[in-house]
Amino acid sequence: MSEFVPQKPHPAAPAPRRPSVAVQIGKVTVGGGAPVVVQSMTNTDTEDPASTAKQVAELARAGSELVRITVNTPAAAAAVPRIAERLAMMGVEVPIVGDFHYNGHQLLEREPACAEVLAKYRINPGNVGFGKKKDSQFGAIIEKAIQYGKPVRIGANWGSLDQGMLTALMDENARRAEPWDASHVAREALIRSALDSAALAEKIGLPRERIILSCKVSGVQELIAVYRDLAARCDYALHLGLTEAGMGSKGITASSAALAVLLQEGIGDTIRISLTPEPGASRTGEVIVAQELLQTMGLRSFTPLVTACPGCGRTTSEFFQELAKTVQEHVREQMPVWRIKYDGVENLTLAVMGCIVNGPGESKHANIGISLPGNGEAPAAPVFIDGEKAMTLRGDRIAEEFVGILDDYVARRYAARTG
């Protein structure tokens, strides 16, 4: 029997961030060691400035640090300055990214105000142009970015691969002594499309510090494989996202599974969770998921999160579930105010537990915790503050009293901002 050799334990933290070139987008820094940036995209008709500005503002207030809008028609391009004006009137300063496909070179030429107002351009090398026009139309957008001092995301996508490059790589692969499988060839085409386009942009004159790359696919394992390879082959800032992730729990699970692996390895400088919203649901859901992913991984702090037990036969009452929901909703409602008034409040930890098994222990680990009575337990709810039992709540006003304790703690514990 071979001797067991203990492995050195891994530190309980993500790997150091992959070194990358910093890119400035308005007041937001992407890459270069900056915190991972959360971004999102509108689904309104950009030709409608009122609805688009409203949704951009909602996304920004939810915590999206960059917001992308589709710029696909002359009317949409003409609307961009009006969207910016409305946002300025609302006091919203989030950088706006213009998403261009097919006709971006024409729109930027015809609408210089649009080219000026946008904080960044996004180009898909797979559909910026075809045949002989591909490089010239790509170059026209890059020249506009140089003219107006804008950064560019070169975003290759599995669903719109450069067919010329894919064909060439397939021919090259056929000549290999040990050919790659089809998925490997497709991944290489995606990566090569992004890297070759970035090289062309630099050749035209766009500085490296104005280039971000992305290579999006819809499969979890494919995304991990693509970005590991891409990260090893360049030092550009990288945008992470699973394209067409899906709706609800499927989209959240798939995006989190893929991005968590990469982020844990130090790969990725900005992320988007591309969720298909439920009919009538707010677009801000994808922002909250992105924030919670980064926060639960220990990469950033955005808002206090509530630890709550899942419930079991000891906790047939729904009260602890209702209290956990009440507390989490209260925190999210108050954060816009707390963020302005208090430093560090986003690091606050809360626990709402359902019975005596783990309740007191978990509550002691949180800044503020409450252990509610389970089946057969005394109708009393001990409250713990910074690890010490502070009081016991009883009666019909436990939820109201606990929220009051939370508000009082925030006001006392966190220093008010001075300017």
From TrEMBL:
Gene3D superfamilies: Dihydropteroate synthase-like, Sulfite Reductase Hemoprotein, domain 1
Positions annotated to bind [4Fe-4S] cluster: C309, C312, C355, E362
EC numbers on record: 1.17.7.3
Catalysed conversion reaction: (2E)-4-hydroxy-3-methylbut-2-enyl diphosphate + oxidized [flavodoxin] + H2O + 2 H(+) = 2-C-methyl-D-erythritol 2,4-cyclic diphosphate + reduced [flavodoxin]
GO MF term set: 4 iron, 4 sulfur cluster binding; 4-hydroxy-3-methylbut-2-en-1-yl diphosphate synthase activity (ferredoxin); 4-hydroxy-3-methylbut-2-enyl-diphosphate synthase activity (flavodoxin); iron ion binding
Superkingdom classification of source: Bacteria
Pathway assigned in UniProt: Isoprenoid biosynthesis; isopentenyl diphosphate biosynthesis via DXP pathway; isopentenyl diphosphate from 1-deoxy-D-xylulose 5-phosphate: step 5/6
NCBIfam families: ispG_gcpE (TIGR00612), PRK00366.1 (NF001540)
Record function comment: Converts 2C-methyl-D-erythritol 2,4-cyclodiphosphate (ME-2,4cPP) into 1-hydroxy-2-methyl-2-(E)-butenyl 4-diphosphate.
Protein name: 4-hydroxy-3-methylbut-2-en-1-yl diphosphate synthase (flavodoxin)
